[in-house]
Amino acid sequence: MDEANVIAHGAQAATSRSTTGASIEAGSPDRPWLDAYPRRVPAEIDPARLGTLVDLFETSVTAFADRPAMLCFGSTLTYATLGRQARDLAAWLRAEGLSKGDRVAIMLPNVPAYAVAIFGVLLAGGTVVNTNPLYTPRELTQQIADSGARILLVLENFGATVAATLSDLALDRVVLVGPGDGLGLKGRVVNLASRHVRKAVPPFRLPEGLAVPFATVLRRARGLPRAAASVGSEDLAFLQYTGGTTGIAKAAMLSHRNIMANVEQSQLWFDSKDPSVPRCCVTALPLYHIFALTACFFQFMRSGGSCLLIPNPRDCDGMVKTLSQTRFTHLMGVNTLFNVLINHPKIGTVDFSKLDFVVGGGTAVQRAVAERWKALTGNTIIEGYGLSETSPVVCVNPRGMRDFSGTIGFPLPSTEVSIRDAAGRAVPPGQPGEICVRGPQVMRGYWNRPEETARALTADGFFRTGDVAVMLPDGQFKIVDRMKDMILVSGFNVYPNEVEEVLAAHPNVLECAVVGAPSEETGEMVVAHVVLKDPTVALEALRAYARTQLTGYKVPRRVVLHDTLPKTNVGKVLRRVLRDGTPEA
Predict the structure, then answer these.
(1) What is the DSSP letter of 388?
(2) How far from each other are the two terminal CA atoms of the chain, in whole angstroms?
(3) In whole angstroms, what is the distance from residue 505 CA to residue 512 CA?
(4) Angstrom distances, CA of residue 158 to CA of 151, 152, 420
(5) Domains 53-242 and 487-580 fall in the same CATH topology
């Protein structure tokens, strides 16, 4: 009987196996999903036995030395080379005075040096601050200042952004990374080509002694001591920035234990721990996003798989060409990515016959897209649910399902999901309420924000997600709404307050409000409702202004003019009224 039928008929045993040796009763009213677990999946894991991300690194670079770890630009970074370069970077960081727990920001797209950077920082005992390379100077300044990062690794293409922030930051070092760094001779060719293309970009200058090329860092490190930092499971591995209902950026504190637990949970669920089976995961989602970081990077590194890096997924032609030239077995994506691929005129050149499974997350996968994807590839998209604060995976549909379900599936092992009302009381199956999560993958809290942490966690230790769902009779969950005003654009969070703050600074804006609207391309799009002081000003001028202050996906796709905005009696703008009156794209 395949797993889809196991799900349909329920588990045959009276109990589910536990990796800790304990026995968890199936059919529990608190965890009815255990009845639906595939037989091979335990109800519990033991995070204490998993070690750290440094342990994962040391085991993998030794056991899989000759295997490809990263595939990019038609070249390969092996586990052995990854191991050597990461240790070199760690030695240099320690020589620069990096102490345990110090933060290092990584501002890179999906290039081979990202893998080196992550492991190098972790080996040195540091904490990684994942940073979007498309951030504007304002956004970068806020994140670096909040995290207290001392060192920044940035793709040289975005050096001008860093140069524009230096007067506001206290960085000790800026490491300039070329897109091909780490790939030897082929990488140098890639770097030369990239610099030739960038001739049209305004030049930038960083102070002498502050900036150092990545290749120089690795070269200088070769004679340095290799003393490793002592890293424990509860040490912080990442400050993963997200947002809140206020729109103020805040960082989820993710420990080594959090990430390792989620990797273990996911690998058990998908039965993907066997290192004897070569795996290659299409990694088009950016590694600074928690979904790709855990599901593509660490999950595949642990089992000796490889990541097929797509540095620029906006280059659809280039991405399809790369896919057509590579045999891959897994793909993690968001609705936008699936939609782009199925509509590309040359998608017929891509061989999907080796696909083992495909996972969709970040934002809801549209049923129409999922059905077209299956018609094209023969593969059902397995949808899941998670957040930065949960490392990220909370729930996921079972591997082997025949048809797209439209649900977010079942909680992973050792994960408790409780649907609660506004008073914090559990509601019965079928009744909507807030998703609350408890498990080893849930963050330690928000960086330097104890009040935000207290608001996010219940008295009994559940994380309040702010998302509304119902639990179905078999223990699956289905998202029905969001409590927050957050807008999801291609899986990325956009917080209205931040966009409103930028628009309100325009000299011709009297008042404004930002809401989300449906979009076939990106799931949702940003819509700005504004009242202008001078209604003759071109609306495109507002969008152009926003582009100077905001990352592209945060810029309003549409601007709607009003004489006045709807408000409550106390003067609060009613976003709900604006959102409900916004037509579909």
Answers:
(1) G
(2) 44
(3) 10
(4) 15, 12, 44
(5) no
Identify residue 380 by its one-letter amino acid code.
T
User: Hey, what amino acid is at 547?
Assistant: R
The CATH class of 53-242 is: alpha beta
What are the backbone angles phi and psi of residue 489, rounded to the nearest 5°? -110, 110
Paired sense of beta strands 558-561 and 523-532, if any: parallel
Query: What pLDDT is attached to residue 247?
Result: 52
d(CA 179, CA 155): 7
Distance, CA of 322 to CA of 255 (rounded, Å) = 34
* pLDDT (0 to 100) of residue 200: 55
SS3 of 405, please? coil
Report whether the peptide linkage leading into residue 392 is cis, meaning its omega lies within 30 degrees of zero: yes
Nearest by Cα to 437 from 462, 470, 407, 472:
462
CA distance 400 to 261: 23
DSSP string, 134-168: T--HHHHHHHHHHHT--EEEEEGGGHHHHHTTGGG
**25-44: buried (b, 16+ CB within 10 Å) or exposed (e) per residue?**
ebeeeebbbbbbbbeebbbb
Q: What's the number of CA atoms in the CB half-sphere (13 Å) around residue 438? A: 11
Closest CA relative to residue 105, chosen from 249, 287, 239: 239
* pLDDT score of 20: 39
Alpha helices in 298-357 (DSSP H): 299-302, 316-324, 335-342
Q: 344 near 368, Cβ under 8 Å? A: no
pTM of the model: 0.86
Secondary structure E strands in 450-508: 463-471, 477-482, 487-489, 492-494
- Residues in the chain with pLDDT < 70? 1-29, 198-202, 243-248, 482, 484, 568-572, 581-585
Looking at domain 487-580, what is its CATH homologous superfamily?
ANL, C-terminal domain (3.30.300.30)
Query: Which runs of consecutive H residues, i.e. helices, occur in 492-574?
Result: 496-504, 539-547
Place of tokens 């001779």: 185
Tell me the DSSP string of 195-240.
HHHGGGSPP----TTTEEEHHHHHHHHTTS--PPP---TTSEEEEE
SS3 label, residue 525: strand
Bridge partner list, 518: 524
Measured at the CA of 385, the angle between CA 381 and CA 388, to 5 degrees, comes to 130
Distance CA 486, CA 214 (A): 37
Q: What is the CA radius of gyration of the chain?
A: 24
Backbone angles phi, psi at 285, to 5 degrees: -70, 140
Cα separation, 556 vs 578, in Å, equals 14
> Amino acid identity, residue 443?
M
pLDDT recorded at residue 203:
73
3-class DSSP state of 190: helix
- Rounded Cα–Cα distance for residues 64 and 144 (Å): 35
Q: pLDDT digits over 346-394, tens only?
A: 999 999 999 999 999 987 888 888 999 999 999 999 999 999 999 999 9
Burial 335-359 (b: 16+ CB within 10 A, else e): bbbbbbbbebeebeebebeeebbbb
Sequence ranges of the domains in the chain: 1-44, 53-242, 487-580
